[in-house]
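input
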Amino acid sequence: MKKEVGLYVHVPFCVKKCVYCDFASFAGREQDEEAYVDAVLREAEKRSGIEAVISTLFIGGGTPSVLPPALMDRLLSGIRQRFSFLPGAECSCECNPGTVTEEFLAVLRKRGVNRLSFGAQAAQPRLLSLLGRIHTWAQVRESVDMAKRAGFENINLDLMLGLPTQTLEDLRQTLDEALALSPAHLSCYGLIVEEETEMFRRVERGEWILPDEDTEREMYECCRETLFRRGFEQYEISNFSLPGFACRHNMDCWKRKEYIGLGSAACGFLDNIRYRNPPLLTDYLAGKPAEETVISPEEARFESMMLGLRMTKGISGRDFLAAHGVTIGEAYGRQLERPLRQGLIEWKDGCLRLTRRGMDVQNSVLVELL
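output
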């Protein structure tokens, strides 16, 4: 019987690099798109020899929706020729508002994509401009409406909180505008200022001031309370969905299930080996091999804890034992004593999970485990 694995495909092209982005994404490289799709399909051919069936597909970027429809069609049809997919597999594609077209969405539908994720981020023009986004909120509405007309029901909107100059009222307005579009899923991410980004340099120079911790925590609570009232379930620190619409691909990653990664900078995890493809587009197109790392038993256990504690249900003690041959208590008993005593983690229904208070200080719990 073939094992079930996920599949991630990275599309590194974009119209304009956002000031907070440290992903492998490249603006103004349209001339490389066709060669890139060919390179991804060559890699897919090499990786298709494993005895596996694809249970989830996630096309991320960059901005996958900048690919011409004909190229996206070639990419998706080529992938389906090389891999077997489970019936009903969740197939997601990231899109940028203002870049999707009816023709592009028709290609996605034809090739089995059934979930879309739009990078909406904020409803205020000044915040979108600050982030370097190329769209307006009117284009968010237009793109979502177009997607629904094309037959997509499982739609996610990415929102950001903790932005420079962002207020609690800004966030409330963004949530109201997002919910008015009736999405099935919302991802509410706290801003992380990564080094080597334009945002990092501006914050370091004092040009932009970030909200303080109390304000950011208040924003996070606003997201949780607002979405709870509207029938959304929080299933991970930053992710909320209507019942039945949690992102299966991400859930599998947090449960440390195996996946194949295709494309520049894409990572994969198979047979306890994690690999990462070259992040530079030129290196990937030249066929430079991926870097591989064998995961030790200790690293594997910590990864299960680090990823599993992101989910609101936590880590199943039974699954941990099956995966690692030891119980959570045997692996981390002493390190768990203090966060248990402080009320940051708890056992519930056979799972170890963060409490609501623990979610605010997740990193400190992980440091304790280290």
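quick obs: The CA atoms of residues 329 and 336 lie 8 Å apart.
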